[in-house]
Amino acid sequence: MTESSIPIRALPKARQRSRPNGLKWFSYISLGILSNAAILGLAFFVLEQIPPTYTSKAAAIIPGVGSQGSVQLPGVGQASSNPGEKSPYGYLLKVDPRENYQYIAMSDVVLTEAAAAVNTSVKDFEEFAKPRVSLDRGTTIIEFEADGKSKLEAQRNTRAFYQALVKRIDYLRAEESARQDNKTLLALDSANSNLKKAQTKLSQFKKNSPLKISEQIKNLSEEVESLRVERANLLAQQQAATSGLRQLEANLRLSTDQAADALMLQDDEVFKKLWQNYSDISANLTILNTQWTPNSPQVINLKAKKQAALEALLARSQQLLGKRMD
Hints:
This protein has nine helices and five strands. By secondary structure, the chain is mostly helical. Strand 2 and strand 3 form a beta hairpin. The longest helix has 58 residues, at 151-208. Mean pLDDT is 73; it is low at 1-11 and 84-93.
């Protein structure tokens, strides 16, 4: 039996078809878009869950005004006292006095008072309201800020913070006023006592001495006049201290509208130049008043310049604010 071999051809292997490149890139892009959408959706969801925070701002301005006391005594002359601080930002001061207000504002006493005003604890007030004070360099403005969960709450927190500071300053002003008054009154009592003793001694000497003119009488007369001048100077110092403390009391008593107006004015370059000119003239006039009488031509001329500078300042403020500034 003859075996015959039949050749068997191998079948070709099936080729695996690959996805087109376009379909592969479409899958990648779709996956990226879905991932970004999921991330953005999660971010928006988180933001929706976080309550919004509002911030309220207020401001106060410290005007550069000095104080001076003067007393006119018959037969003696005029005595005056000038503290030499024409402005709290004078060239003699190397420390911005607003930093003192900033320190007082962030003290425990002020924060406790502010927290009590909004019926919360000091810890919660500091944590949620976040009261803060900032100084605008180159100006006389102090800014107060506080946060809140709503606009009304933020305004209430800022108002409580500001009013607590004013209350603390009022207390310190009254305390300083009492101390200055006691110091001045003690000096006045001593001067009055010495004056009365000298006058009594002079009267007795004139009455008992046969000499009408003598060196002793002359010395006693000079002593009496010296004591009179000393007493007049003390009176002038008392007037200056009282005037300065009253000015300090009024420095921070500004409404919210006035504070907003002050912020608008301090951003205007023309107003700044007019204010600087007015301050310089006022300082020069204060110095001139200590050297000349009020009716002297120099004083009258400088007063006219001061009035003109004031009118220009008021006109500029009216142009900016739409109303005349008091």
